[in-house]
Amino acid sequence: MKSLRFISAEAFVSNAEFARKSLGAVAHDLFPLLFKASYLLEQGEVIHDLVENWPLFDFNMGKLLGATMDYQEDLSHRTCSVCLESCLTGLRDYVLNQSSPYMKKLKVVDLTGIKDVEVQFCKCEKTMGRWARTQLLSKLCSELLVYLQQAQCNPGTFEISINVLIDLFVTERNYELVVQALLKKCSCPLKICCVAFRSDNLTLQKFFYIIKLTDPSLLRKLEIVHNVHLEMEHLEMLFNSIHFPLLMSLTLPARTFNVRRFTATDEQMLANVGKKMGEMTQLTELSMSFSILTGRIQKLLSPLKTPLKMLDVSNCSLNHADMAFLANSFHAHHLEALDLSGHDIPELYPSTFFRLLSHCSSVLRSLTLEDCNIQDTHVNMLILGLSPCQKLQEFKFIGNPLSSQALKHLFTFLCELPMLKNVEFPVPRDCYPIGITYPIDDASLCRFDHQKYERVAEELNLILLQANREDVKASTPLFGSYDAAVQETNNELGTYLIKSFKETLEKFTTSFNK
């Protein structure tokens, strides 16, 4: 619902030429209203001029685009390229604008409230993701500094200092540009302040260099993923050389830990890593999927003084001792998001898992149990375990050998969870050829009866519809949930994987010839 003020703002900015000429006569407290109206209508030129002449002390994208009294719809998930580019170039021109520096009040720009989602509604149909925002801001900062050094600018321009809070995403392709922007931060009026840092497709040397440039004392979220070959000794080195006092969320790449080849030295190293994480008093989110941590969860997590709210230990080869520690630890009562995918829960530790689920049931919002060998005979027990989870918003259980009938039974129960919004369910076992084995390999994943699957999916959605749960989205993403960061850089990552495969083949051929 739009207020009369917002409708008037839309009418004002819809005529871009008139709006741009009239900004000088607009009251300062109307700039946020006009910004959101311009963003909704994708009026790039108006957005640019609003930012260039911003009269307030702060510019917070999340608050400006979020739900307001004048317009309740949240636009922060619209990563429209036209709007965001206009916004960032407007910020550059704010610095270059020759108006009196005494009129320039802006001190903080917060870009961290922008959310990257799968479905976009902007007319231009072109998005600017986190990687591209990192690239553009770094480029504008470098260009701005060059221009200021070459041109005759108002001396007051060099006194402008604006902290730009952003979630950086760095890969090999934009590494040099970001490094240059960070190195010149002290001299540039626009000062990049990294609140969250994601690195992919970087050598360890480059990662260690750039992470120090980001000012780790400000970092709240650190994601080291995919093609950064970080192992436990490198992680210990990172924690010994850099302090992360505000770090709240840590994501480590696959195979950071591998206890199968541990020596006595490695055991001590693991204990040191756990101790260092314990010193991070703000840490509440930890993801370390696809590491081998059998029997070592307690050693790694027991030093933590703050309870975890999010834990991802998918495909970590946990044993009964690990699950028992998690179920009995103080973390269990605070877990809002839990991923235990890749573990044979019904076979290895059914009662311990349900004890863990019982302890976190009052706060649990997201549960992922993909490839956990949950079969038809386990559905009633699963329903019993999930019943107290009244705050559950997301349940993902792709890759489990469940029949169509079992899924219908489960969906009937899921309708009773009042907060549930998203369900990711497997292709029914009876849609695959007889004799299919689980977990299903990639080659066989798509070899199922698609027509039968569509019929079952319709029946499941009908169960939701009849229970008045149209608000629940049910889907089967065969190759995993949408990841905005991976989607944005998939071409670069694909090229890297092909290159790595080629190098491996060449090494093998050379060794074979010798």
Automatic annotation (TrEMBL):
**Keyword Repeat included in the entry's annotation:** yes
Which Gene Ontology terms of cellular component type are present? cytoplasm
Keyword field: Leucine-rich repeat, Repeat
Q: Does the keyword Repeat apply?
A: yes
User: Which InterPro entries does the UniProt record give?
Assistant: LRR_dom_sf, LRRC14/PRAME
Highest taxon, organism lineage:
Eukaryota
Q: Which family does it belong to?
A: Belongs to the PRAME family. LRRC14 subfamily.
What protein does this entry describe?
A: Leucine-rich repeat-containing protein 14B
